[in-house]
Amino acid sequence: MSKTKCLLAVMGLAILTACSNSDDQPVSNDSHHDLQKKTISGMVSYRERMALPPNTTVRVVLEKINQASGTSQQIAEQVVEPSHSVPIPFRLEYKPVPLESDHKFSLQAQILKADGQLLWTTTVRKEVNPNDPPPSITLTLHRAAFQQGQLPNSKKKPARPWVFECHDLAFSAVSSPDKITLYLPQGRNETLARVRAASGAKYEGKEILFWNKGNSAILEIGGKRYQNCHRNQEREARIPSTFWPVDFHATGNEPGWIIEIVKGHRVNLLMDYGKSRVSLPWINPKTSGESTIYETKTGSHRLRIVIAPEACMDSMSGEQFEAQVILKLADKTYRGCGRFLE
């Protein structure tokens, strides 16, 4: 073989080797895995002008929620021990998830003290498309009036309450695989056993029936049938630890306070950014012109609430509300804004 032919053969082999190493080389599993990851990032904040207490924890969760059953599955979680006050950055990483018509995905966040007490929480679920998230998301948390259930975690998942409205009746429901507890007006609660049904989830008890089909339900109680009951997810986000749905929510500033009125049950009050928490008995309100007046007391606490149906703007956030609220506690008067959640 001539020198020229030998040289051409060597060059050809070198080219084939180079092509094999570059174009046909398989991508490692690690690199493929990194390309498949999805990310949601943003900030956690709240509107109060106050520093975080020491030893607090910020928790952000991405959940997959079954709209029919109300059950949830955790997709991603980040727990942060912040070294500074808000805004606090977060970043969730997870694998792409299949999208289904009867499921939604949402973000929730909480700030908790070292002893587990809930300080701030999201009150409305932030819905997202996990496979096409926005570049950045801000989660604005609200002060927790009373210690609510914590977000689900891998060890223990607390019950998720639903709120249903049936024309002139509102109630909440907490379910488990074989039963459901209904939290009805006047502080009444009933636990029903699940029974066989052609569709949906049906529960029965003594003189009471609850039949849930997605976001709609039928309630029969005391011989009366409520045919068109529908879920109100905004009210679900504001249920206190008692599980009865909140009918009116108001807030004010300097110092921060929150009022939650649970019709027929309790009036919950938080003062001075959570340093003082009081639950007072429900008393039927009075009316004066277009205003609604609540007067209640317990022990040394005497509370008067005047709700006027006039437009109101929060002095710190600029958020618009439908009602002006005057709160009188002992000899002090506070002003703020509120909205009816009915």
Strand content: over 45%
Oligomer status: single chain
Assign the CATH class of the largest domain.
Mainly Beta
Number of helices: 3
Largest sheet report:
9 strands, antiparallel
The domain count comes to 3
- The ordered H/E elements are HHEEEEEEEEEEEEEEEEHEEEEEEEEEEE
Number of strands: 27
Low-pLDDT runs? 3-34, 147-158
Mean pLDDT: 77
Protein architecture, described:
The relative contact order is 0.10. The N and C termini lie far apart (95 Å). The longest helix is centred in the N-terminal third of the chain and has 20 residues, at 3-22. Helix content is 9%, strand content 51%. The protein has 3 helices and 27 strands. With 342 residues, the chain is mainly β. Strand 19 (266-271) and strand 20 (276-281) form a beta hairpin. The protein has 3 domains: 38-143, Sandwich (Immunoglobulin-like), CATH 2.60.40.2990; 161-231, C-type lysozyme inhibitor (Lipocalin), CATH 2.40.128; 248-340, no CATH class. It has helices at residues 3-22, 29-36, 233-236; strands at 38-46, 57-66, 72-80, 88-94, 103-112, 118-121, 126-127, 137-143, 161-166, 169-176, 179-184, 188-195, 201-205, 208-213, 216-221, 224-231, 248-252, 257-262, 266-271, 276-281, 286-288, 291-298, 301-308, 312-313, 320-321, 323-329, 332-340. The radius of gyration is 27 Å and the shape is flat.
